[in-house]
Amino acid sequence: MNKQFSLDIIFVAALSINVACAHNVALIDTEGHQSHNYRTLTTLLSTDENKVHFYNLYELLEGINIALYDSVFFLVSTSFARAIKTPLAQSALKPLQDFAHQRNKRLAILLPSPNYSPVLHTIAHAIIATLNGIPNYPQQDPQLTSILDAFLRYSLQADAQQGMLYGTTLLNKTESPQPTLQQTFNELLAVAHKSSCAHLLPSSQQTTALPAQALPHALVIKNEKNNTTFLIGKLTDFTYADREENFFKNSFDVSLRDTFLAQTNHIVHEFLHEGSQKNMVEAPSTLRSAMRKDPLTQKSLDPRYSWVKEQGISCAWLSLEDMFGADYDAKNIPQQQRESIRQNALQNCLQFIYNAKLNLLWFEFIPEWFLGPYGYRNNKREQFITRIKILAAALKKQFANAPMPKIFVGTNVTTNFREQIARNSVTDLYGINYPNIPSPLDIENFWQPELLESIQTFVKLFDQELPIDGIFLDLEMYHAQTQLGSYNDLHDFSDYAWNLFAQATKKPELTQITKHEARIEFLRNHNLFKNYFMVLEKKAEEIGSRIKNNFQALLPHALVGAYTMTLPSSWFYQGFLRGLSSSQAPVILATFNTDFDGHAAELEKEKIFVVHGAVFMLSKLQRVDDSTAIARLRSHHDFVWFNRASRMGYNLTPDQQKQQYWALEASSLPAHVVAEEIRKMTEKI
Prior knowledge:
The protein is an alpha/beta fold. About 40% of the residues lie in helices and about 15% in strands. The chain contains 24 helices and 18 strands. The strands form three sheets. The protein has an eight-stranded mixed sheet with strand order 3-2-4-5-8-7-1-6, with helices on both faces. β2, α1 and β3 form a beta-alpha-beta unit. α6 packs antiparallel against α8. It is globular and about 80 Å long. About 50% of the residues are buried.
């Protein structure tokens, strides 16, 4: 055994930490994010009087001196891992490599886990080998290599596939982790126990009911020659409950989230103050979930929001095609039953809405598909118009003797680009162009035809037949998932965005810089990355404001809603939602985030005003008493929205439903029982 190394594999328990010497800590992001994206890790690092300094990738490229820090947490994003061989990424690694070769330092390398693959495994090895500060590592210690291999096979399993924590948005408590996860976990244990240079922490039995493989974990490597300690971990274990929370990990069960945070807390402190034995404590109070501090009834809102303050919101996302029985997987459904579904889906769904007393119906109409100048379903325009008219008549009949729910027109504003190349497409920091992703700043070729013109046509066609109370912008990119699912802080370095920057800064000579590498080098040499994105974010805000004003002129009484997978966390969504909102007229925002209150104050500080709704997947209702989870969600958010509630119009048997690809979106309980539970848990108290 090489005595130069000692290793700890940490499977955390929630333990208290005695205050030790304070650390000067650098937290380095590789996604170009701002510090608010790492609230959880920053909070955990800031305890014990540590001083935490945040830097993003652009600041790293412009040159920062990290040599003076005691500890560095280096957050390896998926995009950075993919670009690891590029000169730009290699230059970003250089100061980290220099830091790792100093004495008495601590370097944490937190790896992404988009999906385990041999390629990702190799990349992770390469990053660790570059940054570990040990010559010829890991070849000189085969035992260490074996443990590291086992750890990477386990920790790089994707959260989305494994469901790392029970009770999350998409994984029920009764479901077990995938066999692959259990297998790699057992392999890791076997290697660790065989190694004389490794031991497990904690040594005692876990004090939590969670299975061991669901807990946060890290691999610690000690180079005793220069007294430098390295931690290898999984990024989502340390960015838990942040703005871009991973909804396969963040449970809406508050006690589970607090337990998880306490255990992550232990990892951080065990790394910074190694070798101590502690007792159980909770997560820092600033991270623990609290009841709504500022309910809607206390907000000063525009008169258009009077119904929101009086009734609250109970929202359903509904598919028009579902309501006509046209969009479902017919697996193991007899032909006669299929015909029955088509004939009865609309009435069944409206009865469900009526019984549940849902008061905001967000219909996935997607008018740009059928009415827009580039609509890829323009050939079905007449069918679309007919269905809307049938729906409008059915709604009036269903609610003839009851208040009509508010009707919001839902859009998927990028999805026509599955069939066309964007006039001005997005380019990222590394020069990669995404031909089917339009630049979010292109108002004339993107927002005007795809959104504004389509909505205007829709209103002209249906305003007299269908009450239109709002527009709901679905901002997830469903059409080109292999390219992007959403805009992030590595975009946009396209020609279009660059020329906007030149215009805004009154430096027309910048348009003469046409090569991507030269543009990046210019921004880097002049320390202008921050200024560049300030300009882009301001342009995004102007676009949001223009869209809001357009809607206001077209439908003066209407409200604006938006769906994003996470809370606004990058320059485009921050600017866009700021432009769409105001303190008196907030955006009705639906996301998959289950910890909104932890970020609400910061959002308002950034002048982003939202009424926030947390998602509830109806598959969570397996028993009647499961509905209490709806009430728990409501206690931490402004409202709850029910994902694809139109599935409840099919009336399939539980066995049939479990076999459909959309099984997560519907309960196996009878529709009338689900509706009653929703009504009880969401009605105004």
